Amino acid sequence: MRLNANEFSFLTAKTAAFLVGLALLTFWGCTSKPTSNATEDTATKQAPPANSSSNNHFDGGTYCLQTFIQGPPPAQALHFSNKVTESDPSLKSKDYEADLAGDALDVVHHDQWLATEQDRQFFAESRRFDDPKIIVRAIQNGTAEETVTNHYTRSDESGWRMASTSLAQGGTPWNLFVSKPTVNRVGTENVNGYDTVKYAVDTTHDSQTDKAALLMTGQLKDYNITGTAWVLKDANCVLQYNLDFEQDGKDGKVSKTHYEGTITKK
Questions:
Q1: 54 in a domain, yes or no?
Q2: What is the rounded distance in angstroms from the CA atom of residue 148 to the CA atom of residue 108?
Q3: pTM value > 0.85
Q4: Phi and psi dihedrals of 242, rounded to 5?
Q5: DSSP class of residue 179?
Q6: I want to staple 261 with a disulfide (CB 3.0 to 4.6 A). Which of 82, 146, 188, 200 is the partner?
Q7: Among candidate residues 179, 202, 173, 183, the one with its CA nearest the CA of residue 86
Q8: Same domain, 158 and 234
Q9: Same domain, 15 and 98
Q10: Based on the structure, what is the number of domains in the chain?
Q11: 206 shares a domain with 257
């Protein structure tokens, strides 16, 4: 194939530019320091694990009751107490009391709320098939109450897993920490024989942007979380907490939920 003069000049210039660029790249590669790799390595070494605690963060979705139940049998029997108290009587206030000893877990779950006509009808009908050793339902002074007692053994893997999950999801404020509320490390403290890090939780000065995740999922105009949490040093799980959640709904409804929970050795 024959090239005319213009085509030959264009290819010659293009080849020269390529060779000059290649030479510059080679020179830079030989003389420059590998700062990017060093920086990446340093960042990797210094970055804390995602679930680690720090001065202004702890994993509020991980609770020691679940960690202990799913772990090996404890050397000493443990008692778990978790309460959710609602200011709105139409919502269920919950009380979970559980005992872990070896490969056995006993859970008593008590709910109470403002009774409705549907509750009265259901309670009356359920008496025919409820086992009073497991479920007790009653309505007193307009308040509906339900107590459920369950016994679990470690050999029943699915039941054991379900028990720890229901305790964590039903009795703790794990959902409040989806938005990573502002926390501040207060110091260390021994709680019921466990070494913990104490944190103060306070979102009263957070912006609407900081609160966006929970505002959206809860259909809220505003909210505040205040209180204290104690995080186990070694396992980085929440051992004890005492928190208030005040919410201002878009419908104008204002309510408050109080959460408290702890673990004690028996």
A1: no
A2: 6
A3: no
A4: -150, 100
A5: G
A6: 82
A7: 173
A8: yes
A9: no
A10: 2
A11: yes
> Rounded to the nearest 5 degrees, what angle is found at the Cα of 16, between the Cα atoms of 12 and 19?
140
Q: pLDDT, tens digit, for every residue of 49-92?
A: 444 555 676 878 899 999 999 999 999 999 999 999 999 999 99
Among 57, 60, 64, 56, smallest CA distance to 234 is for: 64
Cβ atoms of 258 and 214 within 8 Å: the answer is no
Q: Say how far apart CA 148 and CA 136 lie, in whole Å.
A: 7
Separation in Å, CA 179 to CA 6, 68, 112, 206, 216: 65, 25, 28, 11, 10
Is the residue at 191 inside a domain? yes
Amino acid letter, 19: L
Compute how many other C-beta atoms are within 10 angstroms of the C-beta atom of residue 184: 11
Q: How far apart are CA 142 and CA 89, in angstroms?
A: 10
Per the structure, the complete domain to which residue 40 belongs is given by 5-46
Instruction: Give the pLDDT confidence of 91-135 residue by residue, as tens digits.
Output: 999 999 999 999 999 999 999 999 999 999 999 999 999 999 999
CB-based burial label for 7 (10 Å; 0-12, 13-18, 19+): exposed
Amino acid identity of 78?
L
